């Protein structure tokens, strides 16, 4: 009889691999979490600012391209510099566009608006009125509103003058980049307003002047929307 020999391996002889302990992750100090939150907040704020400014600049550019010749109660020309009664090149370009609209029967009345600086003999409104009369617009078809030293004051003065006469709709004439801001202000004053800007003059001569105009009006419009105060900046183009 064949004997079978069994080798018995004692449990104590089994080799057990040592259980490896994963070292605990080091605790991050509370300051690092705060720093991350601050960085994310700053990044989010910057992103919102970029979107807001970029979106506003796009709207300034977009509305600048609109010329609405719909019939209105009045054509309003925003004032600009004048020299002893002679409109500057910027102002003359606006007045020329207003005259063009008048000849197209867009409105029966042209309103010029703007006060004067210390030492001036003429207001911007009077200078504009004389310019239009010289080109054949009847005096009784022109209303000179001789107040306003900035855009908001001018729009407020025009709005009051129109309400006094029972007028409510207006086509606004200024430089292209100015269009969105003046339209916003006029509508805030309760006017039914749209724009037909000039396409000539220093404000549109060069790419540089166009870029400066968009940048300037983007800042001015944002300032108005936040504070409801005007923010008129000097033109970088020659007046």
Automatic annotation (TrEMBL):
Keywords: Membrane, Transmembrane, Transmembrane helix. One of its GO terms (cellular component) is plasma membrane. The chain crosses the membrane at residues 37-61. It comes from the Bacteria. Residues 73-202 form the DUF218 domain. Gene3D superfamilies: HUPs (3.40.50.620). It holds the Pfam family DUF218. This is DUF218 domain-containing protein. Residues 1-30 are annotated as: Disordered.
């Amino acid at each position: 009889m064949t004997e079978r020999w069994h080798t018995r391996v004692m449990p104590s002889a089994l080799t057990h691999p040592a259980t490896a302990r994963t070292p605990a992750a080091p605790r991050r100090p509370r300051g690092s979490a705060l720093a991350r939150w601050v960085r994310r907040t700053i990044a989010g704020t910057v992103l919102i600012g970029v979107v807001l400014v970029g979106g506003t600049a796009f709207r300034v550019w977009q509305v600048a391209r609109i010329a609405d010749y719909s019939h209105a109660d009045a054509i309003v020309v925003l004032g600009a510099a004048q020299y002893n009664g002679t409109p500057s090149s910027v102002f003359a370009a606006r007045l020329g566009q207003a005259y063009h609209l008048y000849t197209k029967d867009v409105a029966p009345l042209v309103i010029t608006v703007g006060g004067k600086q210390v030492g001036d003999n003429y207001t911007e409104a009077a200078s504009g009125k004389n310019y239009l009369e010289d080109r054949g617009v009847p005096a009784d078809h022109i209303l000179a509103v001789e107040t306003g030293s900035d855009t908001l004051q001018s729009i407020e003065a025009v709005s009051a003058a129109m309400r006094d006469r029972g007028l409510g709709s207006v086509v606004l004439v200024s430089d292209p980049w100015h269009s969105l801001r003046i339209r916003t202000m006029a509508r805030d004053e309760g006017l039914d307003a749209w724009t037909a800007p000039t396409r000539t003059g220093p404000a549109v001569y060069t790419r540089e002047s166009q870029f400066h105009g968009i940048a300037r009006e983007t800042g001015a419009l944002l300032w108005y929307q936040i504070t409801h105060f005007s923010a008129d900046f000097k033109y970088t183009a020659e007046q």
